[in-house]
Fold this protein.
Amino acid sequence: MFTSQGPSLRELAVQALSSVEHGYDLLAPKFDRTPFRTPDRMLDAVEETLAQREGSFSDGLDLCCGTGAGLPMLRRLCRERVTGVDLSTGMLAEAARQHPEGVDLLRGDALALPEALTDSYDLAVSFGAFGHFLPAERPALFANVHRALRPGGVFAFPVGAPIPLSSPLGWAVAGFDAAMRVRNAVWRPPFVMYYRTFPLGPVRADLAAAGFGVETVPLEHFGYREDGSPRWRLLLARKSGPAG
């Protein structure tokens, strides 16, 4: 899973015993050489689907942007400002190094976005970050995104099909989540990262409660499961009101 240029087992262990913020500060210089970075194939699929369905946007926000894998996509989709927000100063430093022009980078908590971002964006995206939010935090998360969007703005992110618990991968992610719960019960500070706490049904309900209209479209690039359901969907949560 990891290249020789990626983090060592010891470095991963130190990260796992840190807070989320400090852990990612430590991991930042090698983050893009881990399997945790959003694959380009996913970014390309999301970009193509958004471009076909929505066209271009004026201003874009990458929530929990990390080292900035999604920022080039936003720059191509958005005509004006692109902003990346993340809690980790280390990850933002890497994003600044890789994307020195055309992007505003802000340190901030997705659960408490700065008031200055209110009604500022037509598109918000996020990749691979939702495991860092407990289910009870979703209403605050979605309310912050709703506030940052202009009327008619879209919050877009990919959602994978449920992983059967009977599969090897299902056992692996369930085991990881169980280990993290034990770790957080006995060690401080907590490191919140779970794989099975973002199911589509409750997420849709929380988005609707925050004032979004919600639809999903298949990401055709990843094909379909045996039951005919898409392996990946793009969720589009739209703030009510006409687009600006």
The mean pLDDT is 92. The longest helix spans residues 168-186. The longest strand covers residues 149-160. The chain has two domains: 1-36, 38-162+199-239.
